[in-house]
Each structure stands twice: as structure tokens, then as C-alpha cells.
Prior knowledge:
- By secondary structure, the chain is an alpha/beta fold.
- 55% of the residues lie in helices and 11% in strands.
- The chain contains 18 helices and 9 strands.
- Strands 3-2-1-4-5 form a 5-stranded mixed beta sheet.
- Strand 6 and strand 7 form a beta hairpin.
- Helix 5 (137-170) packs antiparallel against helix 11 (237-273), helix 5 (137-170) packs across helix 13 and helix 14 (309-316) crosses helix 17 (373-394).
Amino acid sequence: MSDTTTTAPEPAWAAFVGLDWGSQKHAWILEPAGGKREQGVVDNTPEAIAVWAADLRQRFGGQPVAIALEQKRGSVVNLLLPYAHLVLFPVPASMSASYRKTFVPSGAKDDPSDAGWMLDLLLRHRDRLRRLEPDEPNTRLLLMLVEDRRQLVDDKTRLALRLQDCLKQYFPQLLQWFDVDSALVADLLKRWPDLQHLQRCHDGTLRTFFRQHHYGEERIVQRIDAIRAAVAATHDPAVLEAGSMKARHLTASMATLRDQITRLEYRRDELVASHPDAPIFASFPGAGRSTVPRLIAAFGTRRERYQSAFEVVCDSGIAPVHIRSGKIDRVSIRRACQDFTRQTFHEFAGQTIPQCEWAKAFYRAHCLKPEQHHAVLRALAFKWIRILFRCWKDRQPYDDQLYLTSLRRRRTLLGHDLASATSAGWTTVAGFSKLSEKNS
């Protein structure tokens, strides 16, 4: 299986640049069209980049200059994007590293030579690179928001695990009574740092506290009875003081993260409500409030970016790679991809199983053991991406009945009379699963 890269018509390049970016300075090597190579460095400041870009524009009369660099998003890209005459070609770090090792097996490297290898890749293998063509601002903002939200959720999860470990040492009952990732636990620990303080509290005070957190009377009675019957895990004053201090600062940090996540979600929902592609992705089964913006961000709005669904499954990492060498012949998960995008399609595929009959049939037919779960979800995501791609390209919402009718028609055209699309059999071909007739 080979990856393909779509290339737009080539402009008349005035020059080619390999840029090895750094935190302080960027090393560059420039080769004018038909000229000799030059090299230099530019400071990593907006002022220095502005002067360097202006010099290139003046020198080449505003003609396009191709720049290869190991960054698809980040500070350097942000500095270079405003200049229309600079066309960026992001190079995967693994590609440039492997290319350098091909010619320098010793492993020696420095910034100018790395810039030279980037330039060499740009000149010789430009057909394997994809130009950076940013989406419109709202879609780029949406992508940043959903990625930031996921990072904040992961941070909150890590803090919750640390809080659980802390409470196990001196106040384990809280883990049984409440969800530690809640405002109730934060407020409770702020007022009563351990079980001993909580048990000294009057029942009426506890009732008022639980009512403020929307507890029903029956649950309030159960919680108060459990508090009265609980036995302290430790009476060691050192453990109690250290544990209560740690629990308080962890719950405070989690409360801050919850507030930031809420703000991100509010702005994200505003962008989705006005996005032209939102109705397309919202029409898919299992695509809810969190998934729709991630699907929008995964595809973007530039329809010319992808010419086939195969490009999407490769870029996202959902398509496996075929490894064949000597007696080795196997299919493996694709590692070179954007993890967040692969995670988006992976999770979306799982969400469709309870909502879509043919997706449920696919999963049940293939997931025979628990360890097959994620591999089957990737195979299901492979199928969904082809459907998502077609709806996205045609700007049409998904119609489950229309898709099932299409499957039935294709079976009929082959001379098979199927009662339903989900009665077809599934076969594995080169690591992918596809619908086919059942063996009689």
C-alpha cells in the first residue's frame, strides 16, 4: 500500500528555501531558480522574519518562493503565513530524519546541514509534500479550541487520578460516596478536610450542604448514615494534614480546569452553530456536541485539499500500513499521523455502533475477542471516512436509509437478492474489511 499526495499546478518558483527552525535562530539555505545556493541565519523574532521576508519579496519581485520546514503549525508558521509570496511545504520530522540518515549514516548533524537536506527534499521530492493551505479563520480557531479542550480534559483526568490516590491514603470513603471530579467534593473538602471533621458536623448542616448540591432527601439520608458509620483510615496527624492540603489544592486546580473547559465549550458551540459544514456532520449517527466540531476540524473547509477518501484515511492514521519483506507479510497500525485526528475518527466510529444498524452488525461480526476492539473500530472508521468524505465533498447530509438502499442495489446488480444490507457477509482483504456475499 502506498501513500499518495495530491499536488496543485506548479507556479513558476523564483527560489527554493530549506529552513531549519530553532528557538533562537533559524538556519536557511536558499537556491534561486537556476542560481547558486546561499545560506544564512535569521533570528526567531517577528521583526527579523519581517525583514527577511521583505528582502525575498524585493529580490524576486514578489514571485513565489517555496520554503520547506519541519513544522505544520507553530510559531514559525505563524510568522511566515502572512507573507503571500512565501509558500510553505511542511516536512514530517520522521521523513527529514530518515532522509538525512540515508546520506549520513554516522548520525552527524547540525542546523545548516539540516536546512540543506530540507532544501534537497523540496527540490527532488516536492511531489511527496503537500503545500500548507490554511483553512478560513473560524475553522482554524475551531481546530485549536477542540485540541485545547482535549488537553484540558486530559489534564483534569490526571489530577483526578492523583486525587484518588491521595484520598485512598487518609479518606477513602469519599471515593465510594461521590465522584471526585465534582464541585461537591471540592466544597466538602474545603469545609471538612477529613472524616474526623466531617463526623463532628451536625446532621442539619450536612442536609443543608447536600441540598445546595441538588441531592434528594433519600440520598441525603443514605449519605449521612454512611458518614456516621464510617471508620477513619488513619489518625496519624502528619498523614491527615499533608493529605488534606494536597487534596485541597488538587480540587482547586480541577475546579479551574472545569471553568476553562466550560469557556472553551461555549466558544466552540458558537463557532459550530454558524459553521456551514455543521449540518453535514451533525447528520451522522453518534455525532454529538463534542464530535461534530472535531469532525469539522479534521476535514476543514478546503474541498480541494483532498481528492479522495484514501488521502484522508492515510493522513488521519486510520489506514494501516502493509509491511512485506522476505517471509514477513503483515498489516500494522499507522504511526506517522496526527494522533488527535486519528483519535477523532476512532472515537466517532465507536459512537456510531449503538446508533447505526450496519455499524453494529460490522462490529459484532468482527469483534470476537476483547483485544480486537480497537482494531475493529479502526476498520469501521475506515468505512465511515469514505462516507464522511463523500458527504463532505458533495455538501450533503448523511442519510442512513439511502446508504442501506445503495448497498442493497449493489448486491442486486451482482445478482444477489439480499433481505437487508446488514445480512451481507464481511471479508478481510489486505487488512481492510469490506461487504461481500456470504458463502453459501
